[in-house]
Write a structure and sequence with these properties.
Layout (H helix, E strand, L loop, with lengths): L5 E5 L5 E6 L6 H5 L10 E6 L21 H18 L7 E6 L1 H12 L6 E5 L21 E8 L6 H13 L3 E8 L7 H10 L4
Parallel strand pairs: 2-3, 2-4, 4-5, 5-6, 6-7
Antiparallel strand pairs: 1-3
């Protein structure tokens, strides 16, 4: 199970919070480095650290039960991070999410299970978790929360069809989704994606 290990940085006493979720084999410090390229100078950053640098052991396309108890533990750690931020006086509409790869899948899964008005959501190469989409897992209304989803076609880990399905589910829950598919980009974050995230999500 994941320990409660959340790396924090950024502005003290901020009015906005950004939760960053790292990919498999990476760590909280690495994903925090991405903030140097984002328009988030006035944000407080929260980067949970996955135990053994992995949020769950198998592909995000595996039957969910095979990724337990790690998946539920990861979702709970994100939830506890949100609760901590709200206790510090930052409301949900000023909480932002960003994830890459496995962290992007975890981001998509958490926010869609707990849809409400957030500040904004950035999903760099990821999608909803499971061997199929399980619509009954998802509830709430994003109330026009801006979402950016970017991915490569093809991507070795994330089929573009799952990205399309994720966009559709999030839109059905009231999210304002911008989806960008990049031909043969590779499993990475591009400068163009950063620009889109700054323009659409971190623009206030």
């Amino acid at each position: 199970m994941h320990e409660s290990n959340i790396l924090k940085s950024g502005k003290e006493k901020a009015q906005k919070a950004l939760i960053l979720l790292h990919g498999r084999g990476s760590n909280a410090q690495d994903i925090l480095g991405l903030t140097n390229n984002l328009n988030v100078d006035d944000y407080r950053f929260y980067a949970p650290q996955a135990t053994n640098n992995s949020w769950y052991p198998h592909s995000f396309l595996a039957v969910p039960e095979t990724n337990e108890p790690w998946l539920s533990s990861a979702l709970e750690l994100v939830h506890q991070t949100v609760i901590e931020i709200e206790k510090e006086g930052i409301p949900a509409e000023n909480i932002y999410f960003l994830g890459f790869s496995q962290g992007a899948c975890l981001t998509a899964e958490y926010v869609t299970r707990n849809a409400k008005k957030y500040g904004g959501i950035v999903i760099f190469t990821g999608g909803l978790i499971g061997d199929q989409i399980y619509p009954n897992n998802y509830k709430g209304d994003f109330l026009d929360t801006p979402v950016f989803i970017g991915t490569s076609n093809p991507d070795f880990h994330v089929p573009v069809e799952r990205v399309y399905a994720t966009t559709n589910i999030m839109k059905s829950r009231g999210a304002n989704v911008t989806e960008k598919i990049y031909d043969n980009m590779g499993h990475t974050i591009s400068f163009d994606e950063i620009e889109w995230a700054n323009k659409l999500i971190f623009n206030s």
